[in-house]
Each structure stands twice: as C-alpha cells, then as structure tokens.
Design a protein that fits this description.
The protein is 43% helix and 13% strand. It has 757 residues and is an alpha/beta fold. Among the domains are: 161 residues, TIM Barrel; 158 residues, Alpha-Beta Barrel (TIM Barrel). α11 crosses α13. The N and C termini lie far apart (79 Å). It binds glutamine (GLN) and zinc ion (ZN). Zinc ion binds next to loops.
Amino acid sequence: MKYVVGFPRIGEKRELKFALEKYWNKEITFSELEEVAKDIRSKAFKYQKEAGIDLISVNDFSYYDNMIDTIVMLGCEPKEYSDLEGIDRYFAMARGDADHKALPMTKWLNTNYHYFVPQIERGQEFGCNLDKIIKEYAEAKAHGIASPKINIIGPVTFLAFSRGRSGNDPLDEIEGALEAYREALQIISRLDSRVVVQFEEPALVQDPSDKILKALKMSYERLSKVSDNIDIFVTTYFEHSKEATEILLDTDIRGLGLDFVYGSKNVDSVESIKKSGKILVAGVIDGRNIWVADLEKKREFLESLEFDPHRLYISTSCSLLHVPYTLKYEERMNADIKSWLSFALEKLQELDLLDAMYRNKELSQRQKELLERNIKANETRRSSLKIHNRSVQDRLKNLSLSDMQRDTEASERLKIQHELLAYPTLPTTTIGSFPQTPEVRKCRREFKEGIISEEEYKSKIREFIDHCIEVQERVGLDILVHGEFERNDMVEYFGQMLEGVTFSENGWVQSYGSRCVKPPIIYGDVSRPESMTVEWIVYAQSKTLKIMKGMLTGPVTMLNWSFVRDDLPKEQVYKQMALAIADEVADLQEAGIKIIQVDEAAFKEGYPLRKENKREYERIAVESFKIATAVAKAQTQIHTHMCYSDFNDIMEAIDAMDADVISIETARNGNRILEAFRNYNYKKEVGAGVYDIHSPRIPSVEELEKEIEDRLSVLPASQLWINPDCGLKTRKWEETEAALANMVEATKNIRMRLFRL
Ligand code: GLN
Ligand code: ZN
C-alpha cells in the first residue's frame, strides 16, 4: 500500500493564495473562492490517484491553517469571536479584522509552516462540527477514491500546541476534548462501511513529558474503541517517537506512521511493532526536502527492516505541504540541477516506483524509464562538477585555528575597539534595513526586468542610500547603516550571488495562510565568486564621517531558510557557507569598514526537536558563525542580530559565538529577556531593542527613556547599545524618522542623567 501523509493545498500555481487575496479584497464572492478550493482539492485527488497512491487524504486542505480547522471541528473558538460565525469567524481567527485580533501564530515544530495557537480555557467546552470533513469526504468519493483517509490533528498535539487562557494547562482539558473527538469518530464511522482516519501527533517527537504520554495512552485507548469499522493510524514526523510508540502499540489502533528520514532512531521501535501485529507506515520519501530519492538505497533500507510486506505501507515522511508542488513549470532551471530535484508531484511517482521495487512487482514501461532516470540523476549528482568544487573542499579540510576563531580575546578586543571607534556610552544604531518604499521595489523590479540599465539602477540605489544617510545624520544616530535597498530578502540576496545556490521559479511553500516562501536551493559546494556588498557599503561610508556598519546574513540563517543538499553532512554545508561569508567580511574589512554585522535571525530555528541533539547543533552553528567572523581583526567590531525573545536556554551558545555586540528583540518582553544576559553574567555588549518595529506607532521620548532605564536596571551602561527591535523595512519613512529621533533624544537625556551633565 502506498500512503501519503498529506498534500500541498496552496495550488499548483498558488491558486489558493490569489483567490484568498481576491476574496479578502472583495473582488470575488465566497462561492467563487469555494470553487477555486474545490478545484485544488480535485487536482490533488487526481494526481495522487494517477500516481497509484492508495491512501489519499481528505481534510488536508485548509483555507488557512489546519489547527484553525481543528478549532472549528472541536467547537472551541475563543469567545471573543462569538459575535461572528462561519467563514467570517474563521478568517477573523486567522487574520483579525477591525474588531478582532487574530490568534497568535507560531512555527509548526521546526518547519517554516506557521500554525495558529488555540486558546483553551480552564474547563473549556467543546463541540463537534464535521461539516468540512463530510463535504471533502464526499468529494473524494465522487472522484472515485474508494477509501479516502481522513486527516485530523490528534488530541494530544492539539492540546499540547494550545495555550491556556489563564495560566491553565490545556492538557488538563483532555477529557472534554476526547469526548468531542469520540463524537467526531462516531459520525465518521457512519460515512462508509470502513473508514480510515489518520491522527497526526507530531507533538510526540519532542521529548514528551509524562503528562503528554499519559494523555496519549488515555486518548488512543478510548478512540480506538469508538467504532469497529474505523482504522486508526497515528502518525508522527520530523524525529523519532520512541516513548510514544511503545504506548500506542498497547492500544487498538491499526497502524503507526513513523519518519525514517528525520527520525532514524525509529528503527529501534520496529521489532516491537512487528510483534504487535500492527501496520507500519514507513515514512521513507522525504516530505520536507526536495532531492530525488536514491530509490535503490530506500529499497535496501525497507528490506533491512524484515517486516511482513503486507503490513508495511510505504509513505512520505510527513505531509508534502512542506515542499513545492511540482517541477513542471521550471523552465529556466539548469537541466542537471532540475534532474536532481523532486517536488510533491514527482515524489508521488517515486513512492509508487519504490513500492513496486520493494514488492518485486514487474515494472511498467513508465516505471522502468523513471527508474533509469532516477539512477542516472543520482549518479550525475555524485560526480557533477557543478556540485563538487575541489578548492572549496580543500579549504574546509585545511582550516587552521586562526580561521576558526579570532586572535584576541573579547574583553581585549572591546577595549581596542572603544579606543578606536570612540562611540559614546549607550551608542545608538539600527538593525540594518530602512523603509522599502514602492519606489525602492519598483527600481529593483525594473532592473531585474531589464527596463532600466545597471547604471541607472545603481545610481538610483545610491540616491536611496544618500537619503537614508541624511535621515540618520539628522536624527543623530551614532552608528549608521546603508539601508539595504538593493535587497529583496536577506537570504535571497546573498543566495543569488553564491556559487552552489540556485532558485526555482515556482517552488513556493506555504508559510502561513496565503503567504508562501521560495527558499533558495543549496545544491553544490558553496563559494563566493566576488564581493556581494562591498560596493554599497563603501559608497555609503564615503558619504558620512560617522561609522558605517556593514551588513551581512550569517551562515546559520542562510542554511536554516534554504533547502539544503542532502548528499553531504550538513555540518560541511554550514561551514562552506561560513567560508563564503568570511570572504565578504575580509573584503569589507580590507575596504576600511570598521563594524560588520552578521545577522543570525534564524539561529534558533535550527534547534533540533530532541534535547539529545541540541549540543551537536549548537557546536556546528557556533563554529560556523565563528568561521564566518574569525577573519575580523581585533579592531573590527563584529555585531550579530537575532530577532526573537527566548534566550534563556541558549545563552552558552550565544556567548560562544563570540560576537562583540549582539542586538536582540526586547521591546515586547522588556527586561525578562535581558535578564538572561545578566543571569548568565554576559560580558560583551548587547543592543537592546527599545521599541517594536512591527507597529506603526511612534513611541514618545518619555516612554523610550523609561524603556532605556529599565534596561539599565539589568545591564550596566557600559554594555548597552540602544536600537529598535529589528530592521525597519516594513515601516514608512515618517514613522521611522520620528521614532528614531525620539530614540536618540531619549538616549541623550539618559546620558545626561547618568553623567549629571
Ligand atoms: N539586517 C536585517 C534587516 O534589518 C535583519 C532582518 C532580520 O532580523 N530578520 O532587515
Ligand atoms: Zn530581526
């Protein structure tokens, strides 16, 4: 049997995105939106059916997010939305409206998909609303799918990923929730003579607590008994779920879905699954990366499990939601690189072929051709000169200690830098980007489309930089930036200039709701053929007597926001990237730039789901950052920036990165975050965000003074920098100038008080 955990829902060409946006703009009606959605679902059915998939999902579709769908299914919409109903209430939870705030949003484990966080009251009431499932089930049947698989987020994950309204633990509401799930299963049991239900329980892969495991046992003991005609599959992904697996095997569920791509330790559970007589849904086709599978290797792996083939289903490792839809619209991509890739549609074919290989079926002509292509792609990928760059590999092998860490100790460096850079106490700066106005975007677009010449483009960007410097000087900032007008995105900009990195045309992946991202594809050894930022930064420096801070994206963030090759240990890819960035740091320094910021906005996102792997990730990430910045002389000040707020459990790693200055988000959580630095006894300098750049509101001088004083109660003035929370690119110029002017004035007032001037 061939099993797919879930399928992309944004549409082959992002049809859902565009229809949603039209609907919100009132350009189409809800029934027109429904038509588009229906079409997307029927395509998903059709493609999977054509590829011979046996277990095809319903309810993997969503207008926005499947956690919100589950809120609706369980009738636990927060009460502040009770004045609305139906799709209006749905979109109010997702996006907010004039009278309602949206639900908070957060990352789905360690992916770039964001879900919306249910809000659970103490004694929460639940209901049961299966309209969506019933409708989509009927659609699937109408498409000739004999036994559609109904996808539902499991009760444990639903509650574990919720937030308590009043400090309560949502898991305490498991009884009530289970009652609703039970009711749902009763209704589902009447849909067909036999029904398949897949409960997704990814919460089980993150070092589950005893409480979670207890809830798990209770949940599936009960749910597996609701009706004889329901086959329940529980699926986990992204890591192993050893503890949970043992518990689930003791219940009456039919089968268990395990990720063998990202949870290699799941093999340790295979023996007990065999003994249990349950079905093993073996997730072997990588659902979150985009490389062709090595099918022969996968077949060998499956055989090595020595499982009864009748009870082994071959599956994707997770929902295909996390990869782009199809390669078929990639017209400009290099043909070799394209042959190494596999998006959702192509993965269906791999799954089908692997199943035939594993079961020793006679291959069809099409399958034979596919296998041939697969073998060839894997061969060329192993040997292609596009991928393998000897000099990059040698450079990595021959790293010396001085390539891996700075020569001088931090305290010594900071002393030298203070003397040389002579910045005042509480130096003021920004995080890098300044407003990306329509004119800025138009300028980049026209250059890309060949409407304006390179010369024209560059002179326009220089004008934007001039203006940006003027404003910064006018408001009186101490350390300036050039404004990042040449960059569309902090990762894409660098990706486009590096060897070994490419971009698709249509490789969109849903990030949340209608928002999609198109991650860079790191396919080969990474190097930097020529400087990427020097021209702009040097130009900017030439326009001011103040210190111009150079701005780069760090190696960890580059990788964490990309599709990364899987034919090399990830550590090597991180470090190749680090060397490429190091070259840029060296060039900036050479060109006289005295402060260089290497942003690591996504440092935390790469953290593994299991504690057992945390140290290894930190080692690699820290070493990579250090390689990227080791070329900086003691005189050159290295900054980094991270834009989130939970540092408590990663302070050691932050310290080990050895940046001279780190700027962080503290505006929304105030001192709580800085306290991590104090408690740790952090000795280097810290840029504390004093206002939230996500809001157009202009903070007043008084307010900002208060913020600064707050910070000063945690860290001494000698260690503190003053800056906004993050880049200013989403703001307007008026707001930006006014807010920064207030920030500088507040800082000056505080300095006066500090020194009683
Ligand atoms: N330097 C970048 C900017 O200011 C940093 C962005 C980020 O932290 N996400 O836009
Ligand atoms: Zn940021």
